[in-house]
Amino acid sequence: MADxxxxxxxxxxxxxxxxxxxxxxxxxxxxxxxSAARRLAAMETREGQS
Amino acid sequence: METATKPxxxxxxxxxxxxxxxxxxxxxxxxxxxxxxxxYGLYGAFMTSPADYQQGxxxxxxxxxxxxxxxxxxxxxxxxxxxLGTLVFRxxxxxxxxxxxxxxxxxxTLICLITGSFWGKPMWGTWWEWDARLTSVLIxxxxxxxxxxxxxxxxxxxxxxxxxxILTLVGAVNLPIIKFSVDWWYxxxxxxxxxxxxxxxxxxxxxxxxxxxxxxxxxxxxxxLILRMKxxxxxxxxxxxxxxxxxxxxxxxxx
Lengths: 50, 255
Known about the structure:
The complex is a heterodimer of chains A (50) and B (255). With 50 residues, chain A is an all-alpha fold. Chain A has one helix at 8-49. In chain B, helix 2 packs antiparallel against helix 8 (204-252), helix 4 runs antiparallel to helix 8 and helix 5 (132-153) packs antiparallel against helix 6 (157-171). The radius of gyration of chain B is 22 Å and the shape is elongated.
């Protein structure tokens, strides 16, 4: 691991910020997909029964 | 005698089922490519690439900042093509792609703005400067937010798609302004050093991890775009089923 020098905190903070935003993009996309799949499956089951 | 011609990929993708089949085939290879590119890019960014002779170690912010800027512009350019697909070609998947891409474009632009600020403070002595490059990227971020808000404000999908497509095409004028702002105006931001006439001015030892991180962001974008497009298709199917169910209920109760 490289010694990040006197501005190491700025470097780390930028990577953490990027990681948080990328994590949010992944998580929100996954949760929305799961939620839509669950609601659609429930609706199709209900429609199939009626 | 008639011969059946196979429809083009463009036409075949108009069918959500065909899109889902292709998406399912692409998803896992793209996920693996994303993880591999991030691993290679981050290893290069911290382990193999040297410190800059002027900026020292701070140059390592470049590996997450510059590819985020590329993606911020690339996603918007893709959305502009989708907007044409909606307005001119009436392709049914064009507005699905555009709606799915906007939050991702906003995310990459936010990464660009925040990491740029963390880079600017130790190098320029300021978190923010109202210069042409920084301001035009901030405007891009606000346009992304405007597009997301407009999608949410209009309930009827076709009207919403047309309104968003028009706004997207109007906002596309900002792309060349961002790209050439460092040439047209005096700015704190450094001029282009990768995509420029005469080739990159960055050494290969830095360029390789930079491109690897660019590919990592690109693959990540494609994975999330596919996922969000599949979500949007499911949501639209759900809405259609809810309308059909409500119609049935209204008929059965004689309302």
